[in-house]
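Changelog note: in this version the structure field was regenerated for every chain. One regenerated record is shown below for reference.
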Amino acid sequence: MADQEQRTPGEDPNSDDVPATTGPEANASGPVPQEDGFTVDDILNAEQSSDAKTADEAEGAPAEEHPYLEDLRRLSAEYANYRKRTEANAQLEKQRAVAAAVTPLLTVLDDLDRAEQHGDLVEGSAFATIAQKIRGTMERLGVESYGEKGEPFDPQLHEAIAQVPVPGTEQQTVLDVIERGYRVGDVELRPAKVAVAVGADG
């Protein structure tokens, strides 16, 4: 028939001609095209990992110190040392003042020691009570006595009044204490006067 449309052999006469879909519609309905083997999800995950790494590095990075911080530390250390020296000097001056005040009373302490050796400081007597008060006052002022029989002789602490040869003596030791030594803290009032045991010849 003349008006019959000519069709390509093998073409289904009942099928409608549907044009191929192209453009944005095809992209919206189909899978997201990959570029160099990466999907959009891969790119987003990579960006999140990069942001997290940057944040971790920022937290772990040491804070930049202020240019004056080192100067402040040095000044603080210098002030602490200055304060220690000032306190030490003040303490030493206090000890020297006490030493100057009590030095004239050392002879009184010597008399009390001699009285005790002779048995004059009987417990409960008025004399013993006075001696106890004087010694207690000296202790409260920081006055310390030293010098004991049998201790090694030290020329920095002891003044040798006599040397007594004693057989078998290998090291010089204090044989007897004539007068006790006294000090206030680091301030020496006087050395102890002692008799020293030395080795006997032969």
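Spot check on this record: The chain is about 45% helix and 20% strand. Residues 1-6, 13-35 have pLDDT under 50 and may be disordered.
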